[in-house]
Amino acid sequence: MKKSEKTEDNELKVQGACMFCGQTYMMSDTIGGMTEDEKNEAATCKCSCSEAKSYVRKKERRKKVDDYVKETFLGEKTQEMIRSVIEEVEQYAIDKATIKTSNGWTTTIYLDKDSYLNIKRKATKSGRELKA
């Protein structure tokens, strides 16, 4: 099969390569407009090499963290600040960050000994926690 071609049922098949090991994969392009980067991203997500698996885990963790930040923290500026702190903690630039707000919430962000990201948000009565 070439880099892209139509099958008998008029489905467009395209080829992408893993961004880490170069393994190629064929996939369906349902909308017919995948860029080369999108094809390679999809191929990387299908690949079984260790770097691709790590990439997929990080991507899934990022989505889980983003969803948590969106539903837990109000205001776009607050969410961006929390994401910025999370990024610094994930890159080991900061060991642990504690943010206290004027409305009585305390948020602590850190990586545990197993490199899981912990976000603990507590108020005087109850709190929400995430371990990703």
Quote the beta fraction.
25-35%
Overall shape: elongated
Spatial ordering of strands, largest sheet: 4-5-6-7
Give the topology string: H per helix, E per strand: EEEHHHEEEE
Terminal Cα span: 40 Å
Number of strands: 7
Q: Number of helix segments?
A: 3
Computed over alpha carbons, the radius of gyration is 20 Å
Unreliable residue runs: none
Fraction of residues in helices?
A: 25-40%
Structure in a nutshell:
By secondary structure, this protein is of the alpha+beta class. The protein has three helices and seven strands, in the order βββαααββββ. The longest helix has 23 residues, at 50-72.
Description:
- This protein is an alpha+beta fold and 132 residues long.
- The protein has two domains: 4-48, no CATH class; 57-131, no CATH class.
- The protein is built from three helices and seven strands.
- The protein has helices at 36-46, 50-72, 76-90; strands at residues 4-6, 12-17, 24-28, 96-100, 106-111, 117-122, 127-131.
- Strands 4-5-6-7 form a four-stranded antiparallel β-sheet, covered by helices on one side. The chain has a three-stranded antiparallel β-sheet with strand order 1-2-3.
- A hairpin with a 5-residue loop joins strand 4 and strand 5.
- The longest helix has 23 residues, at 50-72.
- The radius of gyration is 20 Å and the shape is elongated.
- The chain starts with a strand and ends with a strand.
- The mean pLDDT is 88.
